[in-house]
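pinned: reference chain
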Amino acid sequence: MKPEFDEWLSGQGPQEEVVICTRVRLARNLEGFRFAAAQDSEEAEVLTQTAEKALRPIARKFGWEWVDLAAANSIDRQVLVERHLISRELGDTDRARGVMFDDVGRASLMVNEEDHLRLQVFRSGLRLRDAWEAADGVDDEMASILPFAYSSAYGYLTSCPTNTGTGLRISVLLHLPALVASKQIETATNAIQEMNMTVRGLYGEGSQALGDLFQISNQRTLGDSEQHILESVESAVTSLLAFEHRHRDELRQKPLVVQDRAYRALGVLERARTLTSEETMTLLSRLRLGRVLHVLDAPPIEALNRIFLLTQPAHLQKRVGHPLDPHERDQHRAELVRKILAG
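pinned: its C-alpha cells
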C-alpha cells in the first residue's frame, strides 16, 4: 500500500486550493438479512462471507483488495480509518466485517458497517459528477449480483432513516483557513446548514475540524433524487468557495501577516522535537494557506500532504512497527516532519 498517494489527498482536480476531495457514498442492504445492529454473531459472519464471495468478480475487475477487519489488528484498522477507507465505527465494532479497496484509494466498499454495504468513491478536488458516475456504475454492477432491500414507496432501505431513499451521501472536504482566521467560519457554516447541509470535521460525524478542514454533506436522501442531491451539494459548496475566496482576497491585502504566520509555522515544524497531532494540523494549515497565497515558495504541497497523513497516530505506529504511547508518538511525529521537510 502507498497511503501517501491516495486519491483523496493527491492535491489535484478543480478548486484544489480549497477543495481537498469529493466523496460519494451509497448505502445498500441485502434482502434476507437483518440490519447490522440487530445481527447475532452467526448472522454477521454469514452476511460478510456472502457479500465477499458474491463481489469477488467486481473486486477483480477494479483491482480491489479484501481485508477481513475482524482478523486485522487495531493499528491496521486505524490506518484504514486515517486513509478514509473505512469509518471509525467499522474499525471499532467487534462483529464480522470487512472492506474492499484499490491501492490508490479511489474507491472502497465497507461490508457490514451500519448498512451491509457502503460504497465510497473518492476524487481529488471538486469533481461531484465524476465521482457520482463512477459510484453509480459500480452500484449497477453490484445490483446485478446481489438482491438489495428496496421499497417501491421509500426506495433503498437503510439502517438509519435519514439514508433511506437513494442512499446517497455526497461530501466535500474543504480547507477554509481564511474563514477561520477572519472569525467568519460560524457565520458561513450556519448559512450552509440552512441549505440542509451537514458540517463536520475531518473524520465525519463527531469529529473536530482540525487543521481548518470541514466536511460538507447532504443531510437527507429520502424524497430527493440523485440529481437534486448533486445540485444541492454543488450549490452549497459553491457558496462556501465564494466566502473563502473573498476572505483570502482580504488576506492578500496584508501579506506580511500571512507570511509571518506561515514562516513561524515552518520554523516550528523544522525544529520541534515533539509535536502533537492537533498542533501539526494547525501548523500545516498555515503553511498551506501561505503556499496558495504565494507568500512562501516551500515546502511543496505534496510534502505537506505526506506530513498530514503519515503523522496520524496509526500511521506513525505502523511506520515504527509497534504501539507508541502519546509522548512517544509526539517525538516520532516531530522526527518524521523534520525528515520530510529536509527532503
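why pinned: The chain has two domains: 3-249, 255-341. Strands lie at 19-28, 65-68, 98-101, 107-111, 117-124, 150-151, 155-156, 168-175, 197-200, 213-218.
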